[in-house]
Amino acid sequence: MNRPAIWSEQKEILFEDNHLLIVNKTAGTLVQADETRDEPLSVKAAEYLRLKYKKPGNAFIGVCHRIDRPVSGIVVLAKTSKALSRLNEMFRDNHMHKTYWALVGKAPQVMEGTLVHWLVKDPMRNVTKAYPQKHQQGQRAELNYKVLGQVGHRYLLEVNPITGRPHQIRVQLSTGLGTPITGDVKYGAMAPLPDLSIALHARRLQFKHPVTHQEMDIVAPLPDAEVWDPIRSGELVQ
């Protein structure tokens, strides 16, 4: 089949219809273009659609949310302007139930709970600081977490962000729990991973289709990275 080599149904592509293209992003890939000029997911997706449907011009791809470059997992892209507009509203109004998996180097003192911080981003350094009390320049950030189990010397956390702030999960786990995500040296991890990814994966997304109103439940397989191998092998101890 005439496809760019990076795309394959059932692997990178988790769902596709006339309105949506849902992709399992690999760590290291940008979602949208930035100053690095590296090819982003949005451009790769447009090229995939152009080749698949033999479009003479550029294919429409709308970006309605992002996950950080070193993070893997689910990204929803819009194939129509109608879908894009409605998805933007759904993300803004927190009508998307997001589940992330994170590997950390030690167990939190409290195995399940809620974190609330006020986040202030430093755009020059591209880092975010979390404050436990209301901050005049901060955005309120909230997430729920629970420890799913232990694998070797690491712990697997399930994280459900209630809000969607830049670097939210990364900084809240590090600041609020004292458990930096494995490989995330920007937020306190001791060492990077070999592929420079971080052990944070956008695992599941539940929402109502913006056009057909079908109930959607998308799950992204774990990336082919050594850090996730013990989870795939069933070594998680609950």
Automatic annotation (TrEMBL):
One of its GO terms (molecular function) is catalytic activity, acting on RNA. Keywords: Isomerase. It comes from the Bacteria. CDD domains: PseudoU_synth_RluA_like. Belongs to the pseudouridine synthase RluA family. PANTHER family: MITOCHONDRIAL RNA PSEUDOURIDINE SYNTHASE, PSEUDOURIDYLATE SYNTHASE RPUSD4, MITOCHONDRIAL. This is RluA family pseudouridine synthase.
